[in-house]
Amino acid sequence: MEILVIVDHPNLENSRVHKRWIQELKKHSARFKVHHLQEVYPDEKINIPAEQELLSAYDFIVIQFPFYWFNCPPLLKKWLDEVLTYGWAYGSNSGYAMAGKYIHIAITVGIQELAYGPDGTCKYTIEELLRPFELTFNYVKSCYSGHFACYDLNSSVSVSLIEDSVINYFHYLNDITNKK
Question: Are 59 and 175 in contact (CB under 8 A)?
Fold first, then answer.
């Protein structure tokens, strides 16, 4: 079963973790189709029919991005707004093209996990902060199936922590396909 991995990272060249995740995903091209939005749309002019056709071809979709300012990068937000359109993804005459698709989110977070929660500096859990994504995917009748998060991955992260994140990411990806 092939998984579509939609990646948005505005500075992938300098990202040690996402770049490493993508390298590993590409080694397994029979299982993963990596679709990097910044690469495909450097001008940010999204080909909506092509994106909808791509989404239609997959039942498992992972959206991978760095989580900063408690949200996704701007191009991913634009992509969500423009691709998940009324009449295609939702609406009484849409056929709900995303219905039944399993959607997962994979994020990196620059600070420690304990910062997320009622007693942390961020006051909210990652689950709470990801609720707008959950609502979006539920609204288009997809099966929002949770997230994978790696914390404390700032610019000084060690190579061993990066490699551990790769292993953990792949365990997560294996788990989600085995649970269907």
Answer: no
